Amino acid sequence: MQQVIVPQARRDWARGVLAAMLIAAWAMVVAGLVPGLPVQVASWLVFIAILITPGYLLGEVVTWRVGLDALERLALALPLGFAVLAVPGMAALLLHWTVDQLSLGWVVASGAILVIWLVYSLWAMGRPERSPVAASPWTLDEAVLLVLLVGVYAAAYSLFTLPKIDGDAYAVASFSVDALAGLPLNAREPLFGTDLGPGVRMVFNQTLPLAYLWSKLSGIDPVTLASSASRSMLALWALLAAYMLGKGARENSRRFGLFTAAIALLIYLAAPFFRGDNASLFFFERINADKFMVPALILPVVFALAMRFCRGGQAAVWWAAALATFAVSAIHPLVAVMLAVGLAGFGALHLVLGWRDRAAWRHVLGLVGLVAVVMALPLLQLVLARGEAPLASSYPASIEGWPVAQRLVPGLPGLPGLPGTYLPTLDYYGPLPAVSTLEPELLDSSASPFLMYRF
Fold first, then answer.
1. What is the CA radius of gyration of the chain?
2. Choice among 173-177, 278-282, 297-301, 339-343 with the minimum mean pLDDT
3. Rounded to the nearest 10 degrees, how much is the dihedral formed by the CA atoms of 197, 199, 202, 204?
4. pTM (predicted TM-score)
5. Of 120, 140, 218, 315, which residue is most buried, by most CB within 10 angstroms?
């Protein structure tokens, strides 16, 4: 495709306008002007302020010379925003801060990113070696496809605001209610009022601080936020992530990026919300759950950056990918393992295809570094979990006469002639307890059978 030279001043002006709009949303939230606005408006502003503004500004500093377009920079903003949030978020969960202290920590962290961006922008604009940038102009088919994408998303917008909630969202809402009540964060399990701890995984799950801040700063109660006011913006960012993945896979092809986003949108909206087995159940309908948010919004960005790094070897691309992989590890350890496996497989294939090329070896070493980054927190969680008192010790030996015991289940298959690996798990003997016959006071104790179903 023919490229045109874009003057640096015009490029900086366009970037500055977008950054100014994001900073304005951040300033409104910090100033406390959002509560009282319509629910959807308030939710959008707080989402942009918490994740997109600091992530976008950090991305501008890290990838200034990479040549990402506006849609790619917005897609990258979300994982980088989680990386910024992880700094006060993990401190709040580890040290049991209150939500007010978490809010202050987020303001300090995001404000520091804003200052760094301002200083870096002034420094970069004054550098004499800055030159015009070559860019591909938009073609008619690309513009038409973009308009169609925006139109379909707008037509489906009402579906994203339908009240829909599940058990996981209610569980997060119960944590948020305790946080908004001023109780110490992550100090106890809030579902049943017992003295059980929340588990080591909750310490590093940054969707919890996101939910606390989102509800507090917007003035939206946690159930309403989870059920109808937090899916529309995440659905849009899933399309941006798909665009970045497609563009990175096809050597910076905007057309293929838009095509990938269109295919993703068709899959996500194949049968929205009417049946329990359609693809949208796992993405648009439950996209505000961490287990679906990370694969749909962050993993495509990481893979796009990995492909771009293997193609050009730019250090700035690697640092952006490292921040994004850190965000994955700070949210969901199992998805982090999946990402590590994907990066390792991609690196192995890249090495097989170019094993005589020294650059390929350097690129694979960079991917090994990304694997190390994404596995750091999950391995730490594994160490902490092994030293943690097991939840099973708090279960009763029986429930109204029905015994509860352990049984061994296959973990890893054994080789011929050798035993495999077995893991202990709980087993029920006899029929499950009838809820209608349970004593109400059992629900507020560690003898509650619902603890078994939940944990």
1. 24
2. 278-282
3. 120
4. 0.83
5. 218
Average pLDDT over all residues of the chain: 83
Lookup: tokens for 351: 């090495």
Q: Contact 97/207 with Cβ under 8 angstroms?
A: no
Q: Tokens representing 403?
A: 């015994």
Closest CA to 449 of 394, 411, 412: 394
CB crowding 323-358: b at 16 or more within 10 Å, else e: bbbbbbbbbbbebbbebbebbeebbeebbeeeeeee
Helices (H), 269-332: 290-293, 299-312, 315-329
Alpha carbon distance 401, 199 (integer Å): 29
Strand pairing class (398-399; 402-412): antiparallel
The answer to whether residue 106 scores a pLDDT higher than 90 is: yes
Q: How far apart are CA 319 and CA 421, in angstroms?
A: 39
For the chain, give the longest Cα–Cα distance: 81
Q: CA-CA distance, 343 to 224, in Å (whole number)?
A: 37
Query: Contact at 8 Å (CB) between 362 and 312?
Result: no
Query: Cβ contacts of residue 46 below 8 Å, gap of 6+?
Result: 29, 34, 213, 214, 217, 218
Of the candidates 10, 8, 22, the residue with the CA atom closest to the CA atom of residue 50: 22
**3-state secondary structure (DSSP) of residue 13:** helix
Distances, alpha carbon 114 to alpha carbons 31, 50, 111, 257, in Å: 15, 12, 5, 29
Three-class DSSP labels, 196-232 = CCCCHHHHHCCHHHHHHHHHHHHCCCHHHHHHHCCCH
Q: Evaluate if residue 121 carries a pLDDT over 70.
A: yes
Backbone angles phi, psi at 264, to 5 degrees: -60, -40
Residue 165 CA neighbour count, 13 Å, CB half:
17
Handedness of CA 133, 110, 295, 164 (dihedral sign): negative
> Looking at the DSSP assignment, which residues form a beta bridge with residue 427?
405
C-alpha dist (Å) from residue 320 to 63, 91, 186, 203, 303: 7, 23, 30, 24, 11
Nearest one of 148, 293, 166, 176 to 234, comparing CA atoms: 293
Residue matched to tokens 């991305």: 59
pLDDT range class, residue 8, cuts 50, 70, 90 = low
CB 83 within 8 A of CB 327: yes
